[in-house]
Amino acid sequence: xxxxxxxxxxxxxxxxxxxxxxxxxxxxxxxxxxxxxxxxxxxxxxxxxxxxxxxxxxxxxxxxxxxxxxxxxxxxxxxxxxxxxxxxxxxxxxxxxxxxxxxxxxxxxxxxxxxxxxxxxxxxxxxxxxxxxxxxxxxxxxxxxxxxxxxxxxxxxxxxxxxxxxxxxxxxxxxxxxxxxxxxxxxxxxxxxxxxxxxxxxxxxxxxxxxxxxxxxxxxxxxxxxxxxxxxxxxxxxxxxxxxxxxxxxxxxxxxxxxxxxxxxxxxxxxxxxxxxxxxxxxxxxxxxxxxxxxxxxxxxxxxxxxxxxxxxxxxxxxxxxxxxxxxxxxxxxxxxxxxxxxxxxxxxxxxxxxxxxxxxxxxxxxxxxxxxxxxxxxxxxxxxxxxxxxxxxxxxxxxxxxxxxxxxxxxxxxxxxxxxxxxx
Length: 425
Hints:
The protein is an alpha+beta fold and 425 residues long.
């Protein structure tokens, strides 16, 4: 029988909420987890199975070796990251298999070798990126907080920006380089490329997102006595009359963790902490659109390839699910920073994405590719712009917030969400 004396409500079962609930249980607290959706996972979740048994995700997500908090959490709930993630050295390859490949070894040496192995670049282009990277290191990956990524890298040749800077920026921040925060971009580069061996490795899911954390975490929480309220939206959060904590829809708790979306947290705290609520409600957002394409006997040059986007080519990345050990002939094409395409409508986006897929895929089945699912996550991430003011983790006494949007060094990523819990335990 549990000897826990502190009762904790965690509102939201995305990756931050699951991290908070697990940490609270490990701290010997009595945990109740609320989630308004019918499944856990938040903005990194699996969808209901499609006809034929295809289990797709709400978007194609990747992790990197620097996601130490996320990998630790997966292990704590019984998931072996090596079994569910394909670990490969960072490679930004195009559909012909040409591009940046980081070899193993010391990160600085590996990055330098990768740049100088770009034989399709001129000497000037390789020198320019090497010089820029050295300057960022000398400045300890810091810059004027008002700079955008485009301004930070304006001196680089156009091909370097198009093949390296822009894809890395939109993949990490989901914000176009001309609007993205250079400060956050440099922090991501530091932790990914220069933090240590393996930090830059790509970790690409080989299983649906639900199997990476949400479902194992719910099973772990249930085994450890947590109460799960899935499919229950919290309507009211109020201070207890005895001053000893909070009530969640009338039920008393000693402490509460708001791990729901920023907009939900703003709604629940409007009367409790008006200034904090206003800050949480003030975010701009960027969408991500993912198109799942089927093409039997087709392939990509690598499990993940970077694509040249254009007026009729919306996707920046494509993933070969067959090469990842999942469904052969299934491919995910990802449109980050997708606001212009969402504005055009899903029919136009789907048609352009399918045409792009047929042009990019290799093999006899490429011409017969079909679009089986188009998923638009319209508030996929907050818009990571210079000078962005993010609300603090502390909302009020015994009331905290967890999520990728709370004040911290990272953009809206899985790792940012999981790390937001660290200050609480």
